[in-house]
Each structure stands twice: as structure tokens, then as C-alpha cells.
Amino acid sequence: MIKEIGKYFIFLGSLFVNRESFKTYYKLVLDECMTIGIGSLFLVALVSTFIGAVTTVQTAFNMVSDFIPKYVISQVVREMVILELAPTIMAVIYAGKVGSSMASGLGTMRITEQVDALEVMGINSISYLVLPKIIASVLMYPMLVITAGVCALFGGYLVGTLTGIITPNDFVYGLRSSYNEFTVVFALIKSLVFAFLVASISSFKGYNTQGGALEVGISSTQAVTSSVIAVLIADYLLAQLLLSI
Amino acid sequence: MIKIQSITKTFGERVVLNEISGTFEKGKPNLIIGASGTGKSVLLKSIVGLTKPDYGQVFYDGRDFYGSDRETKIEIRREMGMLFQGGALFDSKNVEQNVMFPLDVLTKMPQEEKLERVNFCLKRVGLENVNSKMPSEISGGMKKRVGIARAIVNNPNYLFCDEPNSGLDPQTSILIDELILDLSEDLDITTIVVTHDMNSVMGIGEKIMFLYKGVKLWEGANTDITHSGVKELDDFVFANKVMNSLRGK
């Protein structure tokens, strides 16, 4: 375990030595942004809309007292979505979709000697293959989190108002009341950290694949598992660091 | 010229390469032969720096590869071209992009010049009008030829071929062998070929190094290989039925 963490940090250090020209990375980062960002947009929008909808219904189900105003439902949904559901739950989905894809892609390149081909050309394969993925992930994931937040609140609004759980006015009032801007800043800080963790851990697992097709599958699974564990630990640490009074 | 000295590599308890020394000359294919599992590919990977030997030195025209700083290593590597066993073409790029890749990343050549060079190299390996094909759309032999085109596109001083004929039919194997021979002579580069194919040995083996269980047992030309007097080499050479039928004659 300690050895693996040590290897991971050496791997991260290798990202920044013997880099290629800015122009080379620019194209690669754009390609990765398309794959990571646009490729994940539909899934993120779909999942977050449903999460928002379900959260609204379940919050309403638990608000049984007449002393609690209806707008509290959307207030609770807002806090849950911004603080946890959009950045963290999306990170788990992101690890499953993007992380596994990164690990299997790099793993396949490794076992088919494409990584060796880069090395023989005198190219730092870690920097060339992994750095653009990390940069693209850090650029795109916060945008996906913002999209997820908007879609989740929209989903909540739609279900809440269409089913008569809450009136449109109450829902919007709840969203706006006692709003603390720092929650959004906190969600974005989390999204940056999670994006880095998922991309770097998945790439690390994929890059170090040895063997054949079976091992590529194993690396892909390990990438998702390790990324999710890292995200959950980071989630707790960030909450403790930035939200504790 | 490439010179290796006392290359030794172990994996755990197992000694894969034991004090291998030798020279690989310019302008002709230098073959490393031996049965499967004798350490040929590990030796090749040790020479190009993909596997670091436990000890030993590799000199590229007098430049000590493992004793050099990072910049010199990169400089030496940029003079290398390598054909991998499976071609190692980049799946996401088409033939033209694969061959152009070293020029894209390592040079500042204008696009037109790069395209001209790519087409020249593809023509040199006998491939035309395949520029837009993806690696998944071409045959194994074509992949090897694209791999060779990519290896030579940046005018290397050193060409390495790992099992260039594996998985190919005899006719395509001969074509690949002839191509490697022609390139070595025409471009006057140092070429090292790892193979266990006796057709290649007899066809292009002007200088051969025979490995047996990680040890260099014999060195010479294909003209001497049938009467080396080394039992292990005889067993390897005459394991081939065609070669064995010639033995009696």
C-alpha cells in the first residue's frame, strides 16, 4: 500500500519532466476535453435530474409537520445538491465512466507496446499521455458539476411543482432563502480535487498495467475502486477543513 | 555502431541475461537469434533502454547510454527507430497520422514537407493509397510495414526490429526481410533484428548473435551457422525441417 502510494507520487512527478511543446499539449487537451466533457454531458444531466427529482420527493416525504413551511423542501434540496450530490455523487459516476475509460485506454496502449513506442521516440510517455487527461479533467469536471447542480435543481422543481408537493413560488423562495455563496465555492473546490484524483489515479492504474486483456480489465476496475475511495476520503477531509466551525 | 558490454539482467532469482557483450555494425542487419525465452527481447529492450539492465553498458557510437544524463539519453533515443512485434501503431490515428507522428512531435517541419516525407516512407515500404486507413483496417503485414515506415520517417541512425516476421506468411516475411536489408544498406544505419525465423537468418543474417538461456554462445555469419560446432546452435538451426533436410546433403 505504502509502496503503491510512493509509486503514485513518483508517477505524478514524471508528468512535469521532459515535456513536449505547448502546441502538442494544446491539441491533446482539446481532444480530451471533448471526450471527457461533451462525452459525459448526457449521462451527468440525466442522472442529476433524476437525483434532484428523487431528493425533492424524499425530502417532502420526511417533512410531515405542519409547522415546517413548504419552502424548506427546496432549501434542503439546494443544500444537498450543492454540497454533496453534484460534486461527490457525480465524482463516483465520473470515475465509473471517465476513469475506467482512461485506465482501459492506457492499459491497452501499454500491453500493445504503444507506450514503449513513445518511449523509444524519446517522448516522455507519462507526460504526453497523462498530463492532457488531467488538465482536461480539471477543466471539464467543474463544468459538469455546475451542469449537474442546475439539472438536479431543475429536476426537483419539475417534480415538486408537477406533483403538487410544492408551489413554484415556494420552491424558488426556498432556493433563495438563507443562501450562502460559500457552498458553491466549496463545491467547486471539491470538484477540482475530485477531478484531479479521478484522472490521476485512473491514469496511474492504466499506465502500470502489465499482462494482457484480463489485466486491462482488472486495472480498469481497480481504477474505479481506488478513485472512489480517494474521492470519499478527500470529501471528508475537505468538509472537515473548510466547513468545520 | 552499437557496442554492448556485460549486459546482465535478472528477474527475481532468474538470470535472463548473463554478461552479454558484442558489437552491432553499421550498414547491415545484425541478428539476435535463439529459441523462445532465451532473453532476446529483453536484450533488445535493454539496448534501447526500455528495460534497465542490472549492470552493463550500451554505447551508441561511443556514447554511453546508461551513463548519460537525461538530455543525452533523449538525444540518442531521437536517433532510434523501432519496429515492435505487433506493430504498436496508435489505434486512434490513421496510417498517415501514425507515420507522421514522430515528425509532428519531434520536429518543426512544415505540414507539406511532413506529408511528402510520410508518402516517401510509405512508398519505400511498398504501401500507397492507404494513408486514411485505420490500423484495424489493414493486415498484419501492412501493419509491420507501416511500423517500419514510422520507424524510418525521422531518419534514424539506429533501427531495431523485434520479431519482424512473427505472425506473417512466408512471402510477406521475405518482403519484410528484404526491406530491412535494403534500408540498412541504403540508409547506412545500424540495424538490430531479434528473430527466431530461420528464413530470416539465412536470408539477411550477415552478422548473427546466438543466445541460449541468457548466455551468448556463438557469433558469426549465416554462411558459418551450419558448421558452428555448437550443439545448442545446431539443435536450434536444424529444428527446422527444411534446414534438417539440407543437413544430410
UniProtKB/TrEMBL annotation, chain B:
Matches recorded under PROSITE patterns: ABC_TRANSPORTER_1 (PS00211), ABC_TRANSPORTER_2 (PS50893)
Pfam families the record matches: ABC_tran
Keywords: ATP-binding, Nucleotide-binding, Transport
Single GO MF descriptor: ATP binding
Domain ABC transporter span(s) in chain numbering: 2-238
InterPro entries: AAA+_ATPase (IPR003593), ABC_transporter-like_ATP-bd (IPR003439), ABC_transporter-like_CS (IPR017871), P-loop_NTPase (IPR027417)
Official protein name in the record: ATP-binding cassette domain-containing protein
Native source species: Chryseolinea lacunae
